[in-house]
Amino acid sequence: MRKPKIVVLGAGYGGLMTVTRLQKLIGSNEAEIILVNKNEYHYETTWLHAASAGTLHHDRVRYDIKKVINGSKVQFVQATAEAIRMDEKKVILDNGEVEFDYLVIALGSDSETFGIKGLDKYAYAITNVNAARQIREHIEYQFATYHNEDEKKDDRLTIVVAGAGFTGIEFLGEITNRIPELCKEYDVDRSKVRIVCVDAAPMALPQFDRDLVDYAISLLESKGVEFHSGTTVQEVREDSVLICKKGEEPQEIKCGTVIWSAGVRGNCIIEKSGIENMRGRVKVNLDLRIPDKDNIFVIGDCSLIINEDCNRPYPPTAQIAMQQGEVCARNLAKLIHHQDNLEPFVFDDKGTVCSLGEDDAIGVVFGKKIKGSSASFMKKVVDNRALFMVGGTSLVLKKGKFKLF
Ligand code: FAD
Ligand code: NAD
């Protein structure tokens, strides 16, 4: 009898969690498991802000997928998924196609651009390892070029960060630590460097209480960041950005780098494939399947589940993607074992920590507010735990963060 074919798209937090759990739950004679991912490596998306700022080497944030999957149970296919044909039960890849009986879509997110002019051409978004490398190298290039021009352009050393959400704030935490090193390396006077953060909302990180946000903002301001709240980016140009504070005239900030960290939407393949979505995210049933599609699961940043407590979607986070991966694996195993009592996803909120550079952070963990070195310690524990969940102790020893204080 033909074995059912389970195809998992994406080896990020959600996809890799699904596969590493599934390979323990079903036997190799029960189903064929195929994992499709763009690269032969997995990257810790949650560390990319540090690789972008240059405070963490890009190789530290990635590891070989084959090292954490069981090759006798899971076939790894390195390919880019281009379209999902739900009714034909197949996925079109850049190097062929793959058929499925069960599909898990775990392709992560794309930057939300809101159609802003010049963004795709001149701004940088922290999206993957190569994007992070490009940001680091671009900033270094600006420093390296500064002294080698006949006419010095101080604006070259201005970095504008658009979005004071988690990604923007975490990047600011790293870049403000990196700037003194860059100044020393390239003989640049620190006072020539300007770091500006622009956010449309009245307050950064609205998920946290005011005292924690004030702590974060004061720390970053003390390291030279200028915050412009209630201000939107309207256009990005080759060497400047046009911003507008509510009720005021637009203002142009000359700069050498624009980092776009103003939110995400589900992977564009969802829309391209004609799957019903809200900002690229598919509203799934609690068992994580698409309504009326008994064989298709969507997890992680591509999925949307409403948090009944506030009647708003859960945010796209690694914590949720990993928990969904565990439930998805158990539900797939049930389907393979012909059981129909699928498990609902129930979010177990362990808390949130936002880093402010390697040694500082703010957060709420198990309902308790934390900041400073204790929060930074917790952040590293969370990072190491994510490694442990996928690759056990050996992966933690290879890739983990051990400078705990
Ligand atoms: P991802 O982990 O992004 O994985 C998607 C995978 O799919 C990748 O391997 C990608 O290469 C692959 N892929 C994409 N397109 C294709 C394609 N067409 N074909 C084949 N493969 C493809 N969340 C937290 O909970 N805590 C944090 O501290 C945190 N920090 C963050 C810091 C930063 C800088 C950023 C950007 C995000 C952070 N997040 C954090 C959010 C978190 O990273 C995401 O919610 C999480 O990565 C989503 O997991 P996922 O499995 O859906 O997608
Ligand atoms: P976000 O949605 O959290 O923040 C985006 C920010 O951009 C908002 O503050 C918004 O007001 C601002 N913005 C939107 N349009 C703008 C414009 N035109 N001009 C200026 N500002 C604008 O998005 P994010 O920071 O990219 O995070 C994405 C997801 O990843 C979130 O769910 C977040 O929780 C998660 N994440 C978590 C962590 C963590 O837990 N430590 C770290 C990074 C990201």
Automatic annotation (TrEMBL):
The protein's name in its UniProt record: NADH dehydrogenase
GO biological process: aerobic electron transport chain
Lineage of origin: Bacteria, Bacillati, Bacillota, Bacilli, Bacillales
Keyword Oxidoreductase: yes
Family statement: Belongs to the NADH dehydrogenase family.
InterPro entries the record matches: FAD/NAD-bd_sf, FAD/NAD-binding_dom, NADH-Q_oxidoreductase
Regions annotated as coiled coil: none
UniProt KW keywords: FAD, Flavoprotein, Oxidoreductase
Molecular function via GO: NAD(P)H dehydrogenase (quinone) activity
